[in-house]
Amino acid sequence: MTIFVGSTQDSQVKASNVHGLEVNMPSLFRSVSISDVDVRDNYVIMGKKSLFDIPKRYQVIKVLGSGSYGEVIAASDTHSGASVAIKKVPQAFRELLDTKRILRELCLLRQLKHPHVIRLWDVLRPTRCLEMEDIYLVTDLMETDLHRVIHSTQTLSDQHVGYFMLQMFRALKYLHSANIFHRDLKPSNILLTTQCELKVHSICDLGLARSLDVVAPVHANLTEYVVTRWYRAPEVLLDGSRYGASIDMWSAGCIMPLFPGSSTVNQLGKIFNVLGTPSSAYIDRLLKPAAQRWVEKQTYRPALAFSELYPQTNVLAIDLLAKLLTLDPQSRLTADQALAHPYITSLGLMYDPTLDLFDGTVDSSHENVPEVKEDMQRAVFEQVCIFHPEAREAEKRLAAQDVPHVVSPTTGRLRRAVQ
Q1: Among all residues, which ones are annotated catalytic?
Q2: Annotated binding site for ATP
Q3: Which part of the chain is the Protein kinase domain (predicted)?
Q4: Domain covering 2-142+375-416 in this structure, CATH number
Q5: Burial of 117 (0-12, 13-18, 19+ CB in 10 A)
Q6: What residues are designated binding site?
Q7: Looking at the domain 144-356, which fold is it?
């Protein structure tokens, strides 16, 4: 089985795995050049938009791309032999609300270890805690994402779809067992290898994730602008102050986009056109009076059968979709229930379910860090020290002496020398 991704002009790679699935994927890489080694045990390379100042341990392979929150390069870890992605978040402490998100994803990712959740392997050590401006995160390297696969010209087979959904549900079961919900699940956050192995992308967008332990109850004003609109559950659109892990299950059901609305109101219209207008019991449970009044004014629309919308689709897949895309979050399948659905179990794919339960309690103390630059720098530095215990002693030594400054021969910037 083959999935073709991207245009015919793209360079492509092909591989297969034990499940008999294979993917042709466009190359995501661009060449980079390495500059002179600087005065530390680091070297500097030019990415697409900024300089990367990284330890010699990581030998850069290619520039992967850039986005609103930073730039990513592919590198080889000479200690482990693994290929990794290094994400640089430049000027990470300039906008403290963004810093809070970065700190959250950093703290959560450090604690999460699951085969289908992106793994955080390292946070690069800065020269000095209170001089830290950029943050570097080292994670798994993945070749492409589900957005590219879905929007390719090829049709996904039942086996492909089932295998992707199995892995996604396993990741969600693990996150939810840790009392974490993702809140921004979408195809571009579902990363894939050429062997169809899937990992939930947590570096860019798990910063939107929240621990259920630190979310206040009914009166809390949680961020309404979570989950790209096409994948937002109706309770987020209507009642943004209250939701739970079931929003991720709705997003999972929307991964192959059904409701491409252009605004919140338009999005609700798309949903009601398929699922029908909500019942009075559903409306009564909405907390916002304005939302109740808006829904009550909607023209009655009966629910459409998914089997009529997708007559050529596997009936078990249709049943699973219907149980994920239900208006009432209390009736929506959980990740555990989705894994037990006949569409998934009928594929006969074996996995170890014991890996899908988080062991312990998530440390959410990062949520209490004041939105003050120095406090944020110290909080990030504490996370760095978990990966680099020697950094704390080095920081103490630097603080106890008058450390001279040097000018980097590669960047021309003034900074403290590391002794």
Answers
A1: 184
A2: 88
A3: 58-344
A4: 3.30.200.20
A5: buried
A6: 88
A7: Transferase(Phosphotransferase); domain 1 (1.10.510)
